[in-house]
Amino acid sequence: MKASQPGRVDPASTTRLSLELAPAVHELIVLAAIRAIQSAEPGGADDGAVQRIRNAPVDAWARLDQRAIQKVAVHIDLNSIAAALDHARNDSKLDELVAYFVANGTSAPLLQRVFNLPRRKSYELLAQVPSAFSVPKKPRLPEPRQRDEIHAAWSSLKGPLAECYVELHRAFSSWSLATLDQVLNEFSR
Fold first, then answer.
1. Cα 56 from Cα 49, distance rounded (Å)
2. Which candidate, 71, 84, 139, places its Cα nearest to that of 107?
3. Where does the source fall among the domains of life (predicted)?
């Protein structure tokens, strides 16, 4: 397949890209279109054209030369491609955030709450990667003055929850994420 004008976007729409197809691909698309037309639901396409195609006599189908259909347009929805790339980029960013949490002393409940991970998956992640922090069952909390600083820093953070935890940990890197979470929730438990 080659683009009729490489990299040129159809001027009628900024979300489509038109392509010129090789004859074999052209023929496959026409056959797929005919099959789709034969099983099309009403209202999904031009109903008049669909009915004319469905009602065509068998001898017309026999005489139909696939190459006689000269124009087949394939439109690629660039918005869908961009959305898929955004999703892939977000998945990569999510993986990086989970890895940061695991490497910096998170707890399974914190992973579950922040990333909506199943309990089993959270424990598997923690078992796979050794953390720089040993997470005791009940982490030792910072002194009251530093806890106040942690609460003040937390209240100033904006954005997604996981990214806020990362920023908080960078500001108080001597404490594990599990300990910081304990500080943030010390009054709610």
1. 11
2. 139
3. Bacteria
Domain boundary among 32, 49, 78: 78
Q: Tens place of pLDDT for every residue, the chain, 189 residues? A: 334 444 444 444 456 666 677 777 767 777 777 777 777 766 666 677 777 777 777 777 666 655 456 666 666 777 777 777 777 777 788 889 999 999 999 999 999 999 988 999 999 998 887 765 555 566 688 999 999 999 999 999 999 999 999 999 999 999 999 999 999 998 886
What single letter denotes the amino acid at residue 164? C
Calculate the alpha carbon distances from 174 to 6, 82, 90 in Å. 54, 40, 28
pTM of the predicted model over 0.85: no
DSSP codes, 120-142: HHHHHHHHHS--SS---SSPPPP
Q: Structurally, how many domains does the chain consist of?
A: 2
Domain final residue pick, 78, 105, 132: 78
Same domain, 180 and 98: yes
